[in-house]
Sequence to fold (225 residues):
Amino acid sequence: DAGVTQSPTHLIKTRGQQVTLRCSPKSGHDTVSWYQQALGQGPQFIFQYYEEEERQRGNFPDRFSGHQFPNYSSELNVNALLLGDSALYLCASSFSWAGVDTQYFGPGTRLTVL
Amino acid sequence: GQQLNQSPQSMFIQEGEDVSMNCTSSSIFNTWLWYKQDPGEGPVLLIALYKAGELTSNGRLTAQFGITRKDSFLNISASIPSDVGIYFCAGTNTNAGKSTFGDGTTLTVKP
Fold:
């Protein structure tokens, strides 16, 4: 049983560009959350998707948007990239009906903005 | 917004020693979580705490949910080299999402 998978592993973009990151949840999980982890810091919650809708959102600008597909996989889109968007982007999946201890994290996508 | 203060920021210990780290918050949480993150990987859940005062163990790890619901600590007994990594505390008031993380404690274990 594959865990949470994310693609790509690494990505380099320039300021002003747009990026799309992808996440496949652990088998059976129906909820996907995205986190941004800057170097030397803990993950920060961006948003969560359930039933193809954004259910919760953290303190991130509208440049950050997402999507969840019928198979529960998810995308994170960031527009008009800034240098400060350089970070590890983590996806976590879980069961909507269960506690937070069912949440599993993927290995992340390392985004570098030049 | 909610902030978690995690201390110490880093620890250098000898193999076999016990370790203690803690986390305090300006806000109340209903659930406290402790994660470990290794290089190139996402955080892995070690212990989840659901009740104020709860003391939970997972092998050599023991964690407690503070009575005020604003703090938690994690102890590791008899440390071994594979304990090396970054330990994060996190608090949440919702099911399966929107966790607030501390900035981590980096643990180095010298053989």
